[in-house]
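step: validate -> pass
step: tokenize input -> pass
step: predict -> running
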Amino acid sequence: MKFFSIVLLASLVTAAAFAQSGRKSTKPPSPAIPVVINPNETPEKPVTPEARTARDQVAAIAGEEYKCMDDGSLGVVVRTDQAEQVLAANEVTSKAGIRIRPKPEYTTDARRNAVQGTIITHTVLGAAGKVYSVKIINKGLPFGLNESAVHAACKIEFTPATKDGEKVSQWLKIEFPLRLESSIFRR
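step: predict -> pass
step: emit ->
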């Protein structure tokens, strides 16, 4: 009987020490350690900002302004005194007309965590017919949705605003609502 109680006590202590909650971790997995196949090979050189591809994205932070690059990447805008004048909608003769406004893509992590909300941007529609810069002016959303909204804003197609017959740059407040579609309500 004494042996049975010792075994029972030992199994309870072991179970308590190795107990798991059953919930999945919300932390991203730690990066894998690279495996060196040939020890005689030299390690790869670090990637410079100039060598980054469109897939190597800048993390969009609320309050920062990002320039839309031709290769689909983003650059941080640094203001100078020589910057082009950007007018508000009430300062132009004819407002910029948006022809195509892409929707931001939902990231897998955002969908997995059921993140919903609205991202509000301050978007500069350039006189040349391209989006010049995008700035998130509200809190923004996590899990890559800020970046997705900025990239969607960069792909907006529009006719430039005019003032006194000349094309001018205009800033515009654009909202990107991000809502999950529930399979329960789909028809």
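step: describe -> Residues 2-17 form the longest helix (16 residues).
step: cleanup -> pass
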